[in-house]
Design brief:
α1 (43-73) packs antiparallel against α2 and α2 (76-102) runs parallel beside α5 (187-212). This protein has helices spanning 43-73, 76-102, 122-149, 153-183, 187-212, and strands spanning 3-7, 12-20, 29-38. Strands 1-2-3 form a three-stranded antiparallel beta sheet, with no helix packed on it. The protein has 217 residues and is mainly alpha-helical. Bound molecules: MU-OXO-diiron. MU-OXO-diiron binds at residues 56, 59, 89, 92, 133, 136, 169.
């Protein structure tokens, strides 16, 4: 038994370990505190990352809700797409959670609001997705600016993966929305778009991967 506490003011993590009182009658189990970790990031960055965790959690649920609408509306390809998207958002959230915890700060796991559950059209679900990704890009850029301002190289370096990821995510949603312009919005066109989402995702991801590979020359 024991426990731990984080003091945001002193940026210290305290562990509590059990220690028996020498009093032979009472034998009270008391705890002594041992200071263990000094927070390696500022409170401002910790707070901003916790805000990001909250947004990623909301995005996870928002995509599950969209996928659920697609599933019950008969857009099976889109349902799979949005459930995968939700899993990605959950992974993003976990990256931030781990980063805060290993930096000696506390990751705060938030409650989230009920996401939108009904949509006018398949196209509107992708518009909602693009809007959400654009918001995330702004938040990530803001985090990068804070890290730059504080000369926090570790956080700056950690955030670079998210910068690349956001380029890929926005490109993905923009590419899908373009399909509605090109293929159309009648029932057959929408059926084709719904069927083509897995291959669109693979193409965008492959392009992103090739841009991150070092050149052979
Ligand atoms: Fe976690 Fe799609 O941004």
């Amino acid at each position: 038994m024991g426990g731990k506490d984080f003091d945001i003011e002193t940026k210290k993590m305290y562990l509590y370990r059990p220690k028996f009182d020498t009093n032979p009658i009472l034998k009270i189990l008391i705890y002594e505190s041992i200071e263990t970790v000094t927070m390696r990031i500022s409170s401002e960055i910790a707070n901003a990352i916790n805000d990001q965790i909250a947004y990623e959690a909301s995005a996870t649920h928002a995509y599950v809700a969209i996928g659920s609408w697609c599933e019950r509306t008969g857009y099976d390809g889109s349902a799979t797409f949005f459930f995968e998207q939700a899993a990605e958002e959950n992974t993003h959230m976990m990256k931030f959670v781990h980063y805060l915890n290993i930096s000696g700060a506390e990751a705060i796991i938030p409650a989230t609001e009920k996401p939108q559950g009904n949509f006018d059209s398949l196209e509107s679900t992708f518009q909602a997705g693009l809007k959400s990704e654009q918001t995330v890009t702004k938040l990530i850029n803001n985090l990068v600016e804070i890290a730059e301002g504080e000369k926090d190289r570790a956080t700056y370096s950690f955030l670079q993966w998210f910068v690349s990821e956001q380029i890929e995510e926005e490109t993905l949603f923009e590419t899908i929305l373009q399909k509605f312009e090109i293929v159309g919005r009648d029932k057959i066109a929408i059926y084709q778009i719904d069927r083509s989402l897995a291959s669109i995702r693979s193409e965008i991801m492959a392009k992103g991967d090739s841009q991150q590979q070092p050149s052979a020359n």
